[in-house]
Amino acid sequence: MNRATITTRIGLAVALALSAFPIYYMFIMATRSNEDALDTPPPLLPGGLLGENVERLLATEDAHFLTGLLNSAVVAGTVTLSVVAISTLAGFAFAKLRFPGARLLLGLILVTMMVPLQQMGVVPLYELMVSLGWTGQLKAVILPFLVNGFGVFMMTQYVAQAVPDELVEAARVDGAATLGIYWRVVLPALRPGMAVLALLVFMQTWNEFLWPLIVLNPDNPVVQTSIAALNSAHGTDYVMLFTGTAASVLPLFVVFVLFGRQIVGGLMEGAVKA
């Protein structure tokens, strides 16, 4: 096994420092005042105003920041669970079952990945939400994203590689029904891929800005539109923007800290099994 050279290690360390510095600086400014934000050179050590800045953030009536955090957690959690569940079922069907039109349906799913449907479909989707009376409600940012073409394609490829056909046939010979095969044979082998898909979908949904900005009202925001409201209400209050952004990315850090090693370990285990 080849060991990394000193040059490689130095290069990785520099890349890590350059990538982490903006995040570090964001948290530093969340503990500072606006005067510190305008200092040259900028401060690089934490201050003592984090509690005060968080209190001001939560007290900003135009932003409804706490509501935005809770709404984002509900939306991202619901969409993630739905996408993972539907994608694993569809991936199992496309990879291991034979039925008429399978290739055509999978091709249509690939087409949805090639075309920016969200940007091109904003107007008709908004008209649909208006006709249903869902504008300003969280279901308007949940239901359109419960199925994800990328998730279906990813799990189809993962099932094809991680689950041997012989294993499925052996379970069928033993008398297992199709759903039984999915639940007892296929699903345990898909956990590494499911973890990665869940992480990607959660991050994408949590960071979604355009559609919630269009369809939700300012009194019922998600976290990204709350930050936009902070920018409107505090045009030059950089500390509020830094504090709000730091609070919005904190749940993503928690997810990475809690599940990052499990996801990487699961992927390596799945790769070895495949």
From TrEMBL:
The chain crosses the membrane at residues 12-30, 73-95, 102-121, 141-160, 181-203, 238-259. It is a multi-pass membrane protein. The keyword Cell membrane applies. Pfam families: BPD_transp_1 (PF00528). It comes from the Bacteria. Its main location: membrane. SUPFAM superfamilies: MetI-like (SSF161098). CDD domains: TM_PBP2. Residues 69-259 form the ABC transmembrane type-1 domain. Signal peptide: none annotated. Keywords: Cell membrane, Membrane, Transmembrane, Transmembrane helix, Transport. GO terms for biological process: transmembrane transport. One of its GO terms (cellular component) is plasma membrane. It is found in: Cell membrane. Belongs to the binding-protein-dependent transport system permease family. PANTHER family: ABC TRANSPORTER PERMEASE PROTEIN MG189-RELATED, ABC TRANSPORTER PERMEASE PROTEIN MG189-RELATED-RELATED. This is Cellobiose transport system permease protein.
